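Lay summary. Proteins are chains of building blocks that fold into shapes, and those shapes determine what they do. In this project we predict the shape from the chain. Here is one chain we studied, written as its sequence of building blocks.
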Amino acid sequence: MNDSTLRLPAEWEPQAAVLIAWPHADTDWAERLASVETTYAALAAAVTRFESLVIVVPDAAVRGHAEELIRAAGAELARVRFVELPYDDTWLRDSGPLTLRNDAGQFQLTDFRFTGWGGKFGAEQDDALVAGLVEAGVFGHAAHKRVDWALEGGGVESDGAGTVLTTWRCLTQRHPEQSREEMSAILRDSLHASRILWLDFGYLEGDDTDAHIDTLARFAPGDRIVFQACDDASDPHFDELQRMAGELAALRTTDGRPYTLYPLPWAKPIVDEGRRLAASYANYLIVNGAVLVPAYGDAADDAAARIIGEAHPGREVVQVPCRPLIWQNGSLHCITMQLPAGLVD
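And here is the predicted shape, written in a compact code that computers can read:
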């Protein structure tokens, strides 16, 4: 493989499929399984309107159950492939592969160590997921490169042209012994990036990823950045997200221009059994010809969908009900991983 042209594609580039894992009674979703399955079924119906969907299931029984639910939701079953593998949980943005591609159309599945977000949760099976998918033949002849360094896919954003955006809060928690310069070098080398941009500010209550970038700020085509803003001065997030907005305004493209910024509206606090949940609109998913946007049953849902659509012109905007997801501290982007065009049949 020609390593010199490897790069991490942007999410808006052509895709072969989206990868998810179905929630079941042996995952942390057990207490509210029926509720979260409605989101997964709606997601399956939305994705298969535009491209294929690979669903990881633990066994044939869960497969049959999932198939019933997605059929009832209107999913196009001809575009669905099931793969039976064990897994601890369903956050495939973080346990799935970061797929690099070279100019010859060859792929490298970059498989970082998954530690359950810094050892917060058991992750042995999730850490083996990429290897299991490779062994199951999901990725054809793609190269599989294991990287013995903790990183989750939700922790990095790529513009497809060599720039990676990440957060200091997350990566210093994963690697407290390493400097920013050391971590930047590892990211540049493993992701074949030319530069790493860091945000020092930005967090969401109820987020146990230590401020993953995909809950805060996202690259969009044409040197745009979509980000979660907060306009409520009485909210505890206000100062931190204002500072993050300032950091984003100070960033420059590779040719020295400021990015065009798209601030997202702020949902009213969603509290569950006394706990604030992380309802970020930045956690959306791009697919071929569309952008799937989380909806939380809040008055800001439609405005968020409109702004995300403006930042991704030419794509249909589809809202997916995600309130059940944030009970477990993540949203739409967190449960999915896009697979670049050509990676799977």
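What the prediction tells us: Residues 139 and 344 are 5 Å apart (CA to CA).
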